[in-house]
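Data availability (excerpt). The following record was deposited with the supplementary files.
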Amino acid sequence: MRRRDFIEGVLGSAAAWPLPALAQQQPGRVRLIGALTGIADDPLTKAEYAAFRQELQRLGWIEGQNVRIDVRFGEGDASRIRKQAAELVALSPDVILSTGGVSTELLLQATRTIPIVFVIVPDPVGSGFIESLAEPGGNATGFMQFEYSLSAKWPELLKEIAPNVKRVAVIWDPTITAGIGQFAVIQSVAPSLGIDVRPISVHGDIERAIAGFARVPNGGLVVTASAATATETRRELITTLATRYKLSVVTNTKVFVTGGGLVSYGADFVGQFRRAAGYVDRILKGDKPADLPVQAPNKYELVINLKTAKALGLTVPPSLLARADEVIE
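Predicted structure:
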């Protein structure tokens, strides 16, 4: 039902596009785009795919006329993602759009021939997805989530907005390369910020771990980027616990902040999907993934929740407010 609703939404929106867009593509067979993403009902997922579809339409690819899109949702579960990846590959699509490192890894295990355009992947070289950023070399290319150095900004922002924080619990995924890389960067900057770092695995008992951590005052949370931390259930759990124990939360994605977190700093994910449509367009027109360089984010967003800051008894420095791309009041 979710895939059908998605496709019907694309069909409905296609009618609104002008005839010049339709004329951009030559008559021929209908092309198939596969897509493997996260959570079907997540507002961010919906916004990302709306941007992707709109840009495809602008480029002349109209659902039901010259292209079909088959979207599968992994729902943050590795076994489900593996199953969906195998099903998509079995369809032999012309290109697959992949969201995140786990989806990309499992798709590459399933195929080394079907072109893959990935988005929101932290370390495609270190993860073995490509040979280099400039020359990917295989059947995958796309858009990085960020460079690991960005991870240092999260504890720095936490200290800037909550200078009394002395202890930071880092919620991370130790089973993926990106999780290890992010945690290593945070550890490396901790001494200069005067904070002690404690890891909390996203796959463990988060509620018990945060409750134990919060027994000692002057604590804060940093939530690293992974498919496991991005699920709506875990986001809500972490935000609820942070509110209960009055812990400042800094993360990489805006949805944490709109849901009650304190600060986020990360790439514009919606923009990445729009840019990914351009790569999908080029591949459908004959370009090879090996010849399309992997691109870093071209926009980062700082979002601050003033309502949460007030509840925590924090005064956001004017200099930080001036740098914010969005302030939630």
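Summary of structural features: The chain is about 45% helix and 20% strand.
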